[in-house]
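Re-run with default settings, no changes from the original entry. Doing this only to confirm the output is reproducible before filing.
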Amino acid sequence: MRKVCILLFASLALAASALGQSAPTNQPDSPRIKPPTATSTGGSSSSDNPVEAMLIAREKEAWEQIKKKNGQGFSGYLAEDQIYVTKDGVHSKAETVKGVVEAGPTEIAFSDWKVVMIDKDAAIVTYTTKVGAAMACGPEPMTQRESTVWVKRGGKWLAIFHQDTPAGSGGM
């Protein structure tokens, strides 16, 4: 049961990172690597960059797809070669979508948003999630650090990589 819960939460975290279609932007070329742009703990983007704000919004929209157990809708936001890394291993797109269909969170909170633009067609989004005890498969809520790599393919932003890590109290 614990392994199923872990895979489920991992799938949920991936979903959060996976949703993404972009609106056209007229952003000037920027440096190859841009410093992270933090947003407020409430999740509102403090960035002036519309791509960064859109990626954060897509992460949240993906969680909504998971809550609805909408595997087909969720799948449309993942690259075909997408991978999801959890402590249980590396999971394919099909495995990730299957986990989303099987369960979804009842409550979730987001904080600590950061976006690093790698170039105009790739970005890393990181944030923290706290899922209610019902989905954490135990008596306490679960806090995790999330990271998603987004790529723009065929005019759409798609999640190609996601990893979640349980938040701990220790240092590095």
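Confidence is low (pLDDT under 50) at residues 1-45. The beta strands are 37-38, 78-86, 89-91, 108-119, 122-131, 142-153, 156-166.
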